[in-house]
Specification:
There is one protein chain. The protein contains 11 helices and 10 strands. The protein is 42% helix and 18% strand. The strands form 2 sheets. Strands 3-2-1-4-5-6-9-10 form an 8-stranded mixed beta sheet, sandwiched between helices. The chain has a two-stranded antiparallel sheet with strand order 7-8. The protein is α/β, with parallel strands linked by helices. Helix 3 packs parallel to helix 4, helix 3 crosses helix 11 and helix 8 crosses helix 9. The longest helix is centred in the C-terminal third of the chain and has 20 residues.
Length: 296
C-alpha cells in the first residue's frame, strides 16, 4: 500500500483520528462495486466516496425518468434519458476528486472487488451472492421499500476484525458468516411463536421471502411469505397479517428518509468490512420506520 499524501491527511483528518492511519490506508486501497442505483444506494455511495475509498464502480444502465427525480437528489431535468450510473458517477466525482469512480457492466467480473453491494432486483441477489462466494468477495445485499428496509452481510467463512476492548487495548477476532442461500433455506427451531418473534424480527422473514420472487399485491405477498415459512418448517403465525399488509402498501415505492437511514447503515457496514474495525452485521438487519426499530 502506498503512503497517504499530505492532502489526503488534511482531507480525512477527522476520520483518521477516529479509526487510525492503517484503516484509512485500507480504505484508500479498496475497491467497491454497487449494483443498482436507488435512493438507498445513492446515500451509500455518497458516504463511501466522502470517506475516501479507492475505487467505486457503479452498475445501473437504466435511463433516468421524471419519477427518479423525486427520490434521487443528484438528478435533475437535464439528466432525463441518460443512464443512472453515468450521471451519478459524474455527480459523485465532484464530491471527492481523489476517489476513482467508474461505470461497470451488467456482466462485470466481480473477483477484483473487496466488497460487492447489490441493491438491484431482490431475485437476482442469490446469483450475485453465489458468484461472490465463489470468488471470495465480501457480499452485501440491501433494499428499501417505502417505510421498511434491510441489509444482509456475508463476509465468507472467515472474517478477521479488530475489536476495541478499552481505550488502550484491542483484540483480533474472527467471525464466520452464513451464505445468502443457506440463510434463506435455514430452519429455525424455537419452542413457541412468542420466543421466535423475540429472537427474530418478523420483518426479516418477509424480506427473505421477497428474495424468491417479486409480487405486486398483498395477496401475492402473503402467499409468498407463507410458502417460504412452510418450506422452512417455521410457524406461519410468526408473521402476522398486519406486517404483510404494511409492507405490501410499500411495494414499488421509495421513501427518502427511510432510504437515508438504511443507506447510512449500509455504508457503515461496508466501511467496517474494509477497515476491519469492529464486526459487521451478521447476517440480517431490518429497519421499520413506523416503529423506529432497527434490529440485527
Amino acid at each position: 500500500m502506498s503512503a497517504i499524501s499530505k492532502d489526503e491527511v488534511a482531507l480525512y483528518d477527522r476520520q483518521i483520528r477516529l479509526w487510525g492511519m492503517e484503516a484509512q490506508t485500507r480504505l484508500r486501497s479498496s475497491s467497491v462495486c454497487i449494483m443498482g442505483i436507488t435512493a438507498l444506494s445513492l446515500e451509500t455511495s455518497k458516504n463511501l466516496v466522502l470517506s475516501g475509498i479507492g475505487t467505486l464502480t457503479l452498475i445501473d444502465s437504466h435511463k433516468i425518468t421524471a419519477q427518479d427525480l423525486q427520490v434521487q437528489y443528484y438528478f435533475d431535468q437535464s439528466h432525463i434519458g441518460r443512464p443512472r450510473d453515468h450521471v451519478l458517477a459524474e455527480q459523485l466525482q465532484l464530491l471527492n476528486p481523489l476517489v476513482t469512480i467508474r461505470v461497470g457492466k451488467s456482466d462485470q467480473e466481480l473477483s477484483g472487488f473487496d466488497v460487492v453491494v447489490h441493491v438491484d432486483s431482490y431475485t437476482k441477489a442469490q446469483r450475485v451472492a453465489s458468484a461472490c462466494r465463489s470468488a471470495q468477495v465480501n457480499f452485501v445485499a440491501a433494499g428499501a421499500l417505502g417505510l421498511f428496509g434491510f441489509v444482509f452481510v456475508d463476509c465468507g467463512d472467515r472474517h478477521e476484525y479488530v475489536e476495541t476492548t478499552s481505550a488502550e487495548s484491542s483484540t483480533t477476532c474472527v467471525a464466520e458468516y452464513v451464505s445468502l442461500f443457506d440463510s434463506l433455506a435455514a430452519c429455525v427451531q424455537e419452542s413457541s411463536t412468542v420466543r421466535l418473534r423475540r429472537k427474530y424480527p418478523p420483518l426479516v422473514f418477509v424480506f427473505q421471502a421477497l428474495m424468491a420472487g417479486m409480487v405486486d399485491t398483498e395477496d401475492e405477498l402473503e402467499k409468498l411469505v407463507k410458502a417460504s415459512l412452510h418450506n422452512r418448517s417455521i410457524p406461519s403465525d410468526v408473521v402476522d397479517h398486519d406486517i404483510i399488509s404494511r409492507v405490501a402498501q410499500s411495494l414499488g415505492t421509495e421513501f427518502v428518509p427511510c432510504a437515508a437511514v438504511v443507506g447510512g447503515t449500509l455504508a457503515q457496514e461496508v466501511l467496517k468490512i474494509i477497515t476491519r474495525k469492529d464486526m459487521p452485521i451478521n447476517n440480517w438487519y431490518t429497519y421499520d420506520a413506523l416503529k423506529g426499530d432497527a434490529i440485527t
